[in-house]
Write a structure and sequence with these properties.
316 residues; TIM Barrel; two-stranded parallel sheet; 38% helix
Length: 316
């Protein structure tokens, strides 16, 4: 009896000292596949991905500029292929690379557009992943916190989310997405811009192996890019994690080895619930042509049952 009591006390001690998110991660045994295929992904794009790599891109990413609507054809094609829409909603004009009036956004100037956009997502009546104003810890977007200020960034993020909440958009999953490194590093820690647990469903990370394509870049493994930031996120929040953008160039190393090691590393990150792989040429050639050695390696890795392309209870 004393022996059993000691065991019970020890188990209670373990439950007390380990945080909830660490306990929850133990039961997580799968990860959503996802991809950015094109600016206007079609059923044909999704089917081609499945034909090439053996699984659906369950999360299909698109980018939407400010004051632009969500195209009904994209919604129809994505959900028609049993996938889920992953929207990167950018408060700017991407073609002109110009921002909007962010103070005006906070003060209500764009409330009608935000409401209309929210209601368009509500009509889908399916889960939608929404990544708003991403990479605030970089210095390349006009909404970056270094440009508009920490307080303004948090206020604009919360303002948009509050409008969604007023209309009970329970199926929209909000993603707070940061770059893998803080640029600049000084007084720019990504967690300074975290809007709060109430406003976030998933924390996410973006990162690329630029290889030798830039004067400032070098060949980096997936582990070198993502693991430190992943550990920082899981230390500061209990939110599940996504890789919201990742890929590699072929310049400077073996891209087949890179993607093999990347997928193996993903399986070592228990809080990681899904990823978006960039599979096209944009800035650099991030694609994985199915006939290439690295395209074949991606297909081999995706055969693992750990990577799922259908609903698997990972929304929570």
């Amino acid at each position: 009896m004393k022996y059993c009591l000691r065991i019970a006390v020890f188990i209670l001690f373990l439950i007390t000292i380990f945080p909830y998110h660490a306990r929850a991660e133990v039961n997580k045994s799968s990860c959503f596949t996802g991809a950015f295929l094109s600016d206007n992904p079609s059923s044909e794009d999704i089917r081609y991905f499945k034909h090439s790599y053996g699984k659906n891109p369950f999360l299909v990413m698109i980018f939407i500029d400010w004051n632009k609507p969500l195209l009904a054809k994209i919604v129809q094609d994505v959900y028609g292929e049993n996938c889920v829409l992953f929207i990167t909603w950018e408060p700017w004009d991407a073609l002109k690379q110009t921002g909007i009036d962010y103070n005006a956004l906070i003060n209500g100037k764009y409330d009608k557009y935000i409401t209309d956009f929210a209601l368009s997502l509500k009509k889908i009546d399916e889960v939608v992943f929404l990544r708003f104003a991403h990479e605030a810890n970089g210095d390349w977007y006009p909404w970056s916190a270094k440009k508009i200020g920490k307080e303004s960034y948090i206020q604009l993020y919360r303002h948009v989310k509050d409008i969604f909440d007023q209309h009970n958009l329970n199926k929209v999953k909000w993603i707070f997405s940061v770059n893998w490194e803080d640029v600049p590093k000084e007084q720019n820690d990504f967690m300074l811009y975290y809007p709060g647990d109430k406003y976030v469903d998933y924390a996410a990370i973006d990162g690329y192996n630029w290889g030798r394509t830039k004067p400032w870049s070098k060949w980096m493994s997936f582990r070198e890019i993502f693991v430190n930031r992943y550990n920082e996120i899981t230390k500061h929040t209990n939110k599940p994690v996504l890789i919201s953008e990742f890929s590699s160039t072929a310049s400077g190393g073996d891209k087949a080895v890179w993607i093999r090691e990347a997928m193996q590393t993903i399986k070592e990150m228990p809080a990681l619930r899904g990823f978006i792989i960039f599979n096209l040429e944009k800035e650099r050639d991030w694609s994985f042509p199915p006939e290439s050695s690295y395209g074949k390696e991606l297909k081999t890795q995706l055969r693992d049952a750990y990577f799922v392309d259908k609903k698997a209870g990972l929304y929570d």
